[in-house]
Amino acid sequence: MPTAPAPSAGLGFQAIAGNRSDTVDVPPGYRAEAFLPWGTPLVNGASEFKDDASNTALDQARQIGSHHDGMHFFPIDVKDGGNSSTEGLLVMNHEYVDPETLHTRYAPQAPRPQQEVFKEMMAHGVSVAHILRNPDGQWQLVTGSPYNRRITASTPMQISGPVAGHDMLVTRYSPEGTSTRGTINNCSHGYTPWGTYLTCEENWAGSFINNDETPPREHQRYGVRRDHSRYYWETATPRSDETDRFNASSVAGTAAEDYRNEPNHFGWIVEIDPFDPASKPVKRSMLGRFAHEGIVFAPAVEGEPLVAYSGDDARFEYIYKFVSAKPYYQSTASGELLDDGTLYVARFNDDGTGTWLPLDSEHPDFKANALKAGVTFNSQADVLLNTRLAADVMGATKMDRPEWGAVHPTSKEVYFTLTNNTRRSELQTDAVNPRAENAHGHIVRWSEDQQQSATSFHWDIFLLGGEAGTHTANQRGEETTLTADNQFACPDGLWFDYGGRLWIQTDMSGALMQHGNFGNNMMLAADPSTGELKRFLVGPVDCEVTGVVTTPDSRTMFVNIQHPGESSPSGNFSSSWPTGNGARPRSSTVVITREDGGIIGG
Ligand code: FEO
Ligand code: CA
Ligand code: CA
Ligand code: CA
Fold this sequence. Notes:
Number of domains: 1
Radius of gyration: 23 Å
Bound molecules: MU-OXO-diiron, calcium ion
Shape: globular
């Protein structure tokens, strides 16, 4: 992976004003162009995108998916130690669908037409796109490249780690409980030091129902529904095994005859080798099961354990840390490192210290806490299947919706967005979640005590979101007061570029954008070494800005624009970005370059 230039950071661009226009706006001297929008033909045999949304499920399975989210650029030569900034694999998540946009006509009621459900399943997942920069500076898709690949809600996958083969994973599809089909609700992502991509399953629980009298804790604690799923996939007609599996009720005699355990195949982090198009993605169960927003690795150090962080994006859920059992060696590192280790959950003490609490069925503290709580876990697999419950038992700190994390390339400090939590009452506030009815969110920061794998840390609040005048005084004695140039709310995407600039992306609700002074969702850049913070990009109407990465030379940036015109009634969309002129809105990547070819943000 690219090595970081010395983090001089510095924000050399002119901050732009917030606005409500249906465009992507960037500072003077910068260019922003839509690239790889939803429906772009990707895989051999793909059809052209049709603006009336009449593309079929099969078309969609070969086109770029919808709701672009987390994304990474892998230099084409990275496995040979190279660092190309002109050719690579752009790998991105497709989080979900707005059925009103995806279909020509949509009726949110049961039963759903099977072909519509299949199209929605094919629009989820991941795209691997082989891209290159022409001599004229334009980026293009390498059509016909064997690397181009779609991973969908149907792609066969393996399950690895402690939970693989557990009784609670047995289904009609996998009597062994070791394989599964597909990944859904792929929000943020991660990338490993050995050049693989990780996609994270966030709001998967809403795709399932279980109408048994007493659904198991593996379903209840995650919000598997009782009546109907988000898109009524379980009602697809004519019926098929592909869609019946979204009904996790006990309908047969044994787990091997029905899909009562299907929801237990979701909520994981999935490893994909983008350089091996025939490879089977692997769900790495050691990383825990929850509404995984994303995963971020601390810089790998030869001979030391590998450390990664992942947030559970729901109100009052937790932040987790994984420490590998085996040390990292560049020469032999692989996904197996993620199959064995310790998963911890964070407790943020009010005095600015913090503790990582082990979720380990053999650990004396864990055993004592479980006994005290009257909760039984029969194995480490049971702990991981019920990660949220295990974290409850350990008394972890309930956070204001943990979204993305980012690790500074040299200081190794960890930053995490806490997007909002309007349900926190005054009585429920604490030092790390200090605001009741937290509508604007904040960013927390910590450094591990001594080494990255330590079980204690020190934290402070880096930044509070809010309107101009919002003041943050962090524990280093630095103060920030937001102005018109950087007021923001609901931080979500977060990424340190190779020069140590922190990019912050927002996901405000429609109401906040309509009634607040923020304008549309945006991306800002921060220089933690100086406290500078400037608005860099404003997205189109009713979009969320999410997913950011640059080429190793920091001269091309890719940003994702998700769901412009979100949930508008069919035929009356609030956005027509990126095509304009009343066309159907499409989630899309944006390529950002500087007219002088310089460093983005510098
Ligand atoms: Fe999919 Fe938590 O954002
Ligand atoms: Ca997000
Ligand atoms: Ca969000
Ligand atoms: Ca979203």
